[in-house]
Amino acid sequence: MITRVFSSLLSIALAVLLALPAQAQDTTQKVVPNRQNAPKQQNKPYVILISADGFRYDYAEKYRAENLQTLASKGVSADALIPSFPSITFPNHYTLVTGMYPAHHGLVGNNIYDPKLNERYSMSNAKAVKNPVWYGGIPIWTLAEQQRLLSASFYWPGSEAPIGGMLPSYYYAYNEKIPIERRIQTVVNWLSLPADKRPHLINFYLPEVDHAGHLYGPDAPETEKAVHFVDSAINALNLAVQQTGLPVNFIFVSDHGMKTINRNEPLSLPFPVDTAEMTVVSNGTLVNIHVKDKKKTRSIYESIPKSDKFKAYLCDEVPAKYHYGKKDDKYNRIGDILLFANAPYYFSTRKPNPGAHGFDPYETPEMQATFIAWGPAFKEGIKIGAFENIHIYALLAKILKLPYKHAIDGDSKIAKEVLK
Ligand code: AMP
Ligand code: ZN
Ligand code: ZN
Questions:
Q1: Distance, CA 124 to ligand 1 centroid (Å)?
Q2: Whose atoms come closest to the Cα of 83: which ligand?
Q3: pLDDT tens digits along 113-123
């Protein structure tokens, strides 16, 4: 009897164990029912917005990414794409698709605390990433869907939440299990759908270069290999998409760069943390401190010793260039005291990885990202100066002829410079 109970308990435990990873690695395509391109939208061009996470502004040249260099020389490229502060993944991917600085769109970190909601956001928390309350602005796929132009996403921060009540027509929950060949084939399949079902905006995301950069550093052979992997994937995607004969435009960007950091002297918080008094959220190069009793903010701030390894700011004293101070903090999420690590230092309770990002992109140019674009809408063979990533939104909206009235931080100057 006992053995039988034990064995059935064991099989339940096994079933749970087997079910858990399956749920955590959901690789199925999500399709929103009843979506169709409006008839007047069906003749519009197509855009594939690709992000290769952590693809530093100089990697294509440094590692001779031949396909990307050829595409750049035939199309448009910039000296660099300047990330918004903090130069980390979620804030910048969401800036790319909203045209707003992080404090204006609300995704102020990969990890966030919202005192009004009394909730935390983390990019690895599947429930939080699907909750639209964290995402302000109007992402470009929402703008498209509102105007009955279909969109698809093969991963993008924010794309799993019904922002403004709208998800992309086709999307995937983030996972790193689907091989690149299947992902490319899925894009071709989307572009082979009948005109009323075919997405005109496709987001496509590649994590490999960021992974290698963190684990081995920006100068490591593993990072070079990851750059070549992305270079081959983009070549394969480009060739496969050309076969469709559709007027498809490609915008290849990244969210930030990568820097070798000082692993031997990780920064620790410069005061004892009493969780009854404050909530501390670390994003590695940036620490956001929410003080519960605001009367104590100044004394905590004044207790912080001066250091050449980080800067401490009260939220109303953050330099305007960061767009990350109290005046910018539309969602009240940046905290009362902020610590900004000076490269190559990093806040960590353990020995940090060799590579990191998140620093001020002007003081630390290794934070700067990549912009390469090609396709029928783009001028041919031009190189432009570095520009901020808030301007990508207007470029996408212009190619797809999507009008918008809401205020954003970017403008259409870059679009005018690079489009035919
Ligand atoms: P970080 O380097 O800490 O700024 O974060 C980059 C990591 O975020 C990548 O290496 C991915 O593993 C992860 N990531 C990227 N996009 C998503 C997404 N849409 N959902 C969940 N995790 C993601
Ligand atoms: Zn990133
Ligand atoms: Zn990263």
A1: 8
A2: 2
A3: 999 999 999 99
Burial of 71 (0-12, 13-18, 19+ CB in 10 A): buried
pLDDT value for 358: 98
How much distance in Å is there from the Cα of 53 to the middle of ligand 2?
A: 4
Token duo for residue 318? 């953050």
> What distance separates the 2 farthest-apart alpha carbons in the chain?
78
pTM as predicted: 0.94
CB atoms within 10 A of CB 271: 16
Q: Which residues line ligand 1 (CB under 6 A)?
A: 53, 88-89, 110, 123, 129, 155, 157, 174, 205, 207, 210-211
For the CA of 93, the nearest atom of ligand 1 = 16
Nearest CA to ligand 1 atom 19: 157
Neighbours of 232 (CB within 10 A): 14
Strands 382-384 and 81-82: unpaired
For 87-139, the pLDDT digits (tens) are: 999 999 999 999 999 999 999 999 999 999 999 999 999 999 999 999 999 99
User: Hey, what domains does the chain have and what are their CATH numbers?
Assistant: 2-100+137-261+362-418 (3.40.720.10), 278-354 (3.30.1360.180)
Distance from Cα 175 to the centre of ligand 3, integer Å: 16
Query: What is the helix (H) or strand (E) element at residue 143, kind and residue range?
Result: helix 140-146
Please say if 89 is a catalytic residue. yes
User: What pairing do the DSSP bridges indicate for beta strands 201-206 and 355-356?
Assistant: unpaired
